[in-house]
Design brief:
Elements (H helix, E strand, L loop, with lengths): L12 E3 L2 E4 L8 H11 L4 E3 L4 E4 L3 H15 L19 E7 L10 E6 L28
Parallel strand pairs: 1-3, 2-4
Antiparallel strand pairs: 5-6
């Protein structure tokens, strides 16, 4: 973004920005918004379609963006139709090894150990699924 202010675009350049993220995060697609604002306020750049945000890898939203982009540019972008996948996720259990105190921004670090073999890599997402509390008829609320 710092380099964008140094660009002197001699010929108009058409652009479209699409952001991927999750509405579970407070700064949902913030970088895409920043890029869109930067390009919109920089001479020599022309928006073809408004900013699109894709929540949780929504194929339908991405496909809608592709259709709008194709109409605006006259370029054909073919996306394969996705069949309905009933993906069964393998659940892994973890135990909390340690937790730091919250920082000024209310973030903290939780260290986990997998119970059993578990392969993961940087960028993988972790979903927490609490065990059903039969006696209360629901799920425990976070503290």
């Amino acid at each position: 973004m710092d380099l964008l202010v140094t660009v002197k675009q001699p010929n108009p350049l058409k652009y479209a920005v699409i952001g991927f993220g999750s509405t579970l995060y407070p700064n949902y697609c913030k970088y895409a918004i920043d890029v869109e604002n930067g390009l919109a306020t920089t001479s020599g750049f022309e928006q073809t379609i408004p900013l699109y945000k894709v929540n949780n890898q929504s194929y339908d939203t991405f496909r809608e963006w592709a259709i709008q982009w194709s109409k605006a540019t006259g370029e054909h972008l073919e996306l394969p139709a996705l069949g309905i996948k009933n993906k069964i996720l393998k659940l892994h259990e973890f135990e909390v090894v340690s937790k730091t105190e919250p920082n000024r921004d209310d973030t903290f670090v939780i260290r986990l150990n997998a119970k059993g073999k578990c392969k993961f890599q940087s960028g993988d997402l972790l979903e927490y699924r609490p065990r059903r509390m039969e006696s209360q008829g629901g799920f425990p609320l976070p503290k």
